[in-house]
Amino acid sequence: MNPKKVDKIAVGVIYAMSGVIVLILASLLLFILWRGLPQISWEFLTAPAKSFQVGGGVGIQLFNSFYLLLLTMLISTPLALGAAIYLSEYAKQNWMTDFVRTAIEVLSSLPSVVVGLFGFLIFVIQFDFGFSILSGALALTIFNLPLLTRTIEDSLQAIPATQREAGLALGLSRWETVTRVILPAALPGIITGMILAAGRIFGEAAALIYTAGQSAPALDFTNWNPQSITSPLNIFRPAETLAVHIWKINSEGVMPDGAEVSAGASAVLIIAVMLFNLGSRYLGRKLQKKATSA
Amino acid sequence: MVTNEKIIETNDVHLYYGKNEALKGITLDFNPNEITALIGPSGCGKSTYLRTLNRMNDLIQDVTITGQVKYKGKDIYSPKMDTVELRKKIGMVFQQPNPFPFSVFDNVAYGLRISGMKDKQKIQHIVEESLKKAAVWDDVKDKLHDSALALSGGQQQRVCIARVIAIEPEIILLDEPTSALDPVSSGKIENMLLELKENYTMIMVTHNMQQASRISDNTAFFLQGHLIEHGKTRQIFTNPTQQETEDYISGRFG
Ligand SMILES: Nc1ncnc2c1ncn2[C@@H]1O[C@H](COP(=O)(O)OP(=O)(O)O)[C@@H](O)[C@H]1O
Ligand SMILES: [Mg+2]
């Protein structure tokens, strides 16, 4: 065969393969939305779940998912950012940092069930946080930290060394160079990393089953006292999330309309992740604009 | 500043990358308000030497430097030296234009703002003056708030020079500032450097013999980590004392 022909065939195969992937994704998405969208109503999004009757909603689970996501990102972002800045900008390249990097890589491939069990033993039992938002957020932090650190470090490393030289040669200190030049330049990459992490967290169930728990006590959205068990802000209350709810309905749900609720919840999950995605991108662009004109 | 007084003095400077000795005892002084060209074949240590003058080699792991580098009589490698302050006084322009991925205006204003200047009008004024001095104002005055990365290579390099000028250094180090640029842009930068000479001391690495002879007052010729010869540019180019210098200048190697 001549090279031209080979080239044509190769391109054809690549097109076909990407086509298949797109097709799979699109049909999955369409399937979930097609089944789930009809279930979604204001009622469904705000009403509490019902265990035995028809007509339960996912309001509390939805709130729990966002609240957990927020807490997890609040805990893990500064940690990951600090670790990534250290690894990328300050650490000497030697066996120690190589070791830390390898450790991070290994951690990032831990199955989330294992992270969940670890969280159960440590946070729920040992620290006596019980099945709670706090236990869940800490478990999710462990689950999230390695990959987030890694993606942030990668986006810092992607900024060419000439930018660091430019900063230092301009009489900026090392820290100023990092915070005023490298970080703003890396911001789009960092935001993308955070979006990916957020998607993973939002859809995570296995790490939460034994940490944040599988029940969603009724919340009173007018109660802003974080100590009260019915307050949405309370971090010591058990908090079933949307993803856990879907898992639970399908494994032990006894409500007659389980299939519908599950379909609706799946659609909500996907839509939420997509909305979150778009919003973060927009925010990222805004942030960068602000950071670079500081 | 009194003429005759040296602004930078280097004395028997050796630099090792690990075990590899890249500078083998360089002793060379610089007069204020003059342009000195550092010439020599690739890999002879010109950039390495230039970077010892503002301690940019500190960034590289495993570098050892011996000897003395003095800026206005003060040893810059003394533990008491504030490298951040030093680099404000000794600015640097690199071979590849390296503007920050920000707007043209912010690139030039950055150093000022970070060192605490708040007065918007003053910043605006300095940015404009710096861009004018760097002979790029006419090119960018209508796109101050566009990304500097959208400019041509030559314009980017002049913005980088403006960025350095804005923080009012006394010395500007230039490492082959025009080697990545076309002849027209290079010519603009050469003319601009000649004008800047009134107010700044400049030390410039260059590969381009015409450039060295056109704009420099002094020339220093490096070869394999040694300083072979230095002196008035006219003398080096017309009447070198060393055979290697003559061979290099006449294009017999390098
Ligand atoms: N960061 C570095 N690490 C190790 N060796 C280096 C480094 N930079 C330069 N060198 C070596 O030092 C010598 C001088 O390099 P350099 O100063 O860049 O030369 P020039 O600028 O004259 O082309 C070369 O042999 C080069 O390989
Ligand atoms: Mg060089």
Total count of helical runs of at least 4 residues of chain B: 10
CATH superfamily of chain A: MetI-like
Shape of chain A: globular
Mean pLDDT of chain A, rounded to whole units? 88
Flag low-confidence runs of chain B.
none
CATH architect. name of chain A: Orthogonal Bundle
Largest interface: A-B, 23 and 29 residues
Class based on secondary structure composition and strand pairing of chain B: alpha/beta
Portion in strands of chain B? 25-35%
Order of helices and strands of chain B: EEEHEEHEHHHHEHEHEEHH
Mean pLDDT of chain B: 92
Count of individual beta strands of chain B? 10
User: What percentage of the residues of chain A does DSSP assign to strands (E)?
Assistant: under 5%
* Oligomeric state as shown: heterodimer
Structural class of chain A, by secondary structure, is: mainly alpha
What integer value in Å does the Rg of chain B equal? Answer: 18 Å
Query: Would you tell me which CATH topology of chain A applies?
Result: MetI-like fold
Distance between the termini of chain B: 38 Å
Radius of gyration of chain A: 23 Å
Euclidean distance between termini CA atoms of chain A:
59 Å
Question: How many strands in all of chain A?
Answer: 0
